[in-house]
Design goal:
With 365 residues, the chain is mainly beta. It has 5 helices and 21 strands. A hairpin with a 6-residue loop joins β14 and β15. It starts with 22 loop residues before the first helix and ends with a strand.
């Protein structure tokens, strides 16, 4: 595409911003990694482009010395090395993971945390053994009420020191879908993705998929760890009841069309027919049943590919005849349960679960 004149002249000025960035948020943004939206064109996200969020430091673990301990309300406490785990029946599953805080940066006011926009998502093929294989080997006792999973990453959050930990109820962990994964896209886990072993909980937001997994503790009561009992809840007021964050909400994103302006990320496309493409997904194994694209607020249906894996995104496509001028494109999805993305972000104190429609500014010349 040859550019003979600058189509972004109205947007070249960079006015001073109101207020300062919090240096802590800049630090978080440098440490964590977002999916470049153009990488939505990959059905399976390359490892280096898949989003990552790490609460504390990335631990350096040695596969030869690795051990997974299973304790608590079990008939047979276990300590398994990596080879013993890899000897269990293996399978691979394609799973879309999204950070629960994805979209937090669009909320006003927002909480002081990782300022994600759209890009905290990715789809990989995870290989491992079903969590159920290890739990069955340990034997849950009849009074097992909660199963806590702990990673090797440790730090402070809200003044409390802890190993990163999350839990699942026994019925959520009992099926075949939850994986103890040792490989991602056919290769051993990268350090930032949980090497040498991690939990993958399909259909849930990413906080449930504990990385660098070292301990499983079966409890006779609900797990009260910091990341379970305090973090990851929906509430609009500090006095509201805490509603736990669990399954992903229905969502869609588009591959940015044309070429970008560096600062504003506005897009330049040539006039004429073009395809607008993207990905859509939902949680709890629900398929996306409808996709839509809006041009300047007028919605039209998009073609959605059939669901090939019940926990992975689906591709979609819509044709558009681009006419010269300034336009706004948007996309939204509806899942098989009838849930549709909202036009405006649903606000909550922690900035969780923002599945509002994506908007993309486009200049057509």
């Amino acid at each position: 595409m040859s550019v003979v004149s600058n189509p972004f002249l109205p947007f070249q000025s960079r006015p001073p911003l109101d207020g300062d960035y919090a240096r802590e948020e800049l630090s978080l943004a440098y440490r964590n990694s977002a999916l470049p939206l153009e990488a939505l064109s990959y059905d399976i996200t390359p490892v280096g482009l898949h989003y990552t969020l790490t609460h504390f430091d990335i631990p350096r673990l040695d596969a030869a010395g690795y051990r997974l301990a299973v304790s608590g309300r079990v008939a047979r406490p276990l300590t398994l090395d990596l080879e013993e785990i890899r000897a269990l029946p293996a399978r691979s599953e394609r799973v879309t993971l999204e950070c629960a805080g994805n979209g937090r940066g669009f909320l006003t006011p927002r909480s002081a945390s990782m300022p994600w926009l759209y890009e905290a998502v990715g789809t990989a093929e995870w290989t491992g053994t079903s969590l159920r294989n290890v739990l069955d080997r340990a034997g849950l006792l009849p009074d097992a009420a909660d199963i806590a999973f702990f990673g090797a990453d440790r730090g402070f959050d809200r003044g409390v020191a802890h190993d990163y930990g999350r839990s699942l109820k026994p019925d959520a962990a009992a099926g075949d879908e939850c994986l103890l994964a040792w490989a991602m896209n056919g290769a051993p886990l990268a350090p930032q993705h949980g090497y040498p072993l991690r939990l993958v909980v399909p259909g849930w937001y990413g906080m449930a998929s504990v990385k660098w997994l070292t301990r499983i503790e079966v409890l006779a009561q609900s797990f009260d760890g910091q990341q379970q009992a305090v973090g990851y809840h929906y509430r609009k007021d500090p006095d509201d009841p805490r509603v736990p964050v669990t399954f992903q909400k229905v969502k869609s994103l588009m591959v940015p069309p044309g070429i970008p302006d560096w600062y504003t990320r506005r897009r330049l496309v040539e006039r004429g027919p073009m395809g607008i493409t993207g990905r859509a997904w939902s949680g709890a194994g629900l398929a996306v049943s409808r996709g839509e694209v809006a041009v300047d607020g007028v919605w039209r249906d998009a073609h959605v590919e059939p669901q090939r894996s019940r926990n992975a995104w689906q591709g979609w496509r819509c044709e558009w005849r681009a006419e010269p001028g300034e336009h706004e494109l948007a996309c939204r999805a509806t899942d098989a349960a009838g849930a549709t993305q909202p036009v405006e972000p649903p606000w909550n104190l922690s900035g969780m679960g923002n599945n509002a429609i994506q908007r993309v500014a486009v200049t057509v010349r």
